[in-house]
Amino acid sequence: MMSEWESMTIDDLFALREQMQEVLSTKLLARKAAIELRLQQLNRRSRVMKTVRPDLQKLVMTFGCYGCAWTLLPLVSNL
């Protein structure tokens, strides 16, 4: 028994290949855009953490002298 692929003409197979290439290319471009967007979000968050976190650590150290650093620590550790 002849398979479906074997019964197709060369032109039909080539057209099918082009359709598959177009669909896969579109999906890959969409996935790439989503990954790049996520990377931008992570980079933005990383820059914020680098600028904010040292100041918060100094604040905890300052309040630590007065015995209330334990109240700020849960807030700082989530950043």
Characterization of the model:
The protein has 79 residues and is mainly alpha-helical. The longest helix is centred in the middle third of the chain and has 55 residues. The chain has one domain. Helices cover 86% and strands 0% of the residues.
Average pLDDT, rounded to a whole number, is 77
Number of domains: 1
Count the E strands: 0
Q: How is the biggest beta sheet arranged? A: none
The global form is: rod-shaped
- Terminal residue distance: 65 Å
Give the class from helix and strand content and strand pairing: mainly alpha
Task: Describe the structure concisely for a colleague.
By secondary structure, this protein is mostly helical.
Please give a handful of descriptors for the protein shown.
79 residues; mainly alpha; rod-shaped
Indicate the topology.
Blueprint: H1 4-7, H2 10-64, H3 69-77
